[in-house]
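Practice problem: AraC family transcriptional regulator
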Amino acid sequence: MKMEALRRLNDCITYIEGNLEGEIGVEELAKLAFTSKYQFQRTFTMLTGYSVAEYVRKRRLTLAAQELMSPNVKVIDVALRYGYETPESFSKAFRKAHGVSPSQVKKTGKALKAFPRISFHIQLKGEMEMNYRIVEKDAFQVIGVSKVVSTVNGENHQVIPTFWDEVNESGVDEKIAKLAGNQEYVGVCMDFDHPNERFTYFIGAEDLANVTQSELEKREIPRNTWAVFESVGPMPHAIQAVWQRIYSEWFPSTGYKHAGGPEFELYLPGDVTQEDYRCEVWIPIMKN
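Answer key — structure tokens:
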């Protein structure tokens, strides 16, 4: 099962590489992967560290840089070939990726950055088994605070820890716990906006006190069947490793797929820096 899933992902990369000068629809990639658009985009991001759009953009700009090395190639032609409507938009993206403008490349032959094609391989590591359970849970309310974060260049990996620091240092975490009547915090990924490469990250707690009025935000997590994975070890490395294994090992080797909607981490009381700290990852699932 895992080998088949990896083969499909590599088929998706082949499709992307063959269409870098044309349209690349996530719908077609999801069909090749035999999964939903949502699950494909989440799986791709979790396994590679890049959104589909970011990977395509980086590959196009790599090929564009190679073409600009040729003396008879015009910048406007390269820009149009790789989907940029104006030389200005192409130049802005190119400079962000390579640190120089397209015209500077042609004049000076400056060194450029290459973003290589990705490929997926199976690795037999003999790792420990994944501890998980399947849970049916009714819809529930969470209260807390949220921030819209970008996934471009892995920005979310820097913004989210900083957001947690802000919440903890300002005392908002204590306020959340007091109002909610719950010392177990959640970090929820929700409202995924894949085309614009962003989502909402929510820090809060399940509202056990049924708060009716508060300046804090209140959101509902819908009823779902959840796969709940245990993480043991200091934050954030231990739980990041669990996320990686969920998408690289668990989903490809089971009969489940992502059900869409919010997914969250549940932080239990304890010292998050300790080797025995335990927390959980909750993923909404459904049968394939």
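Discussion: Residues 132-287 form a domain with the Multidrug-efflux Transporter 1 Regulator Bmrr; Chain A fold (CATH 3.20.80.10). Students who identified this feature from the tokens alone can consider the problem solved.
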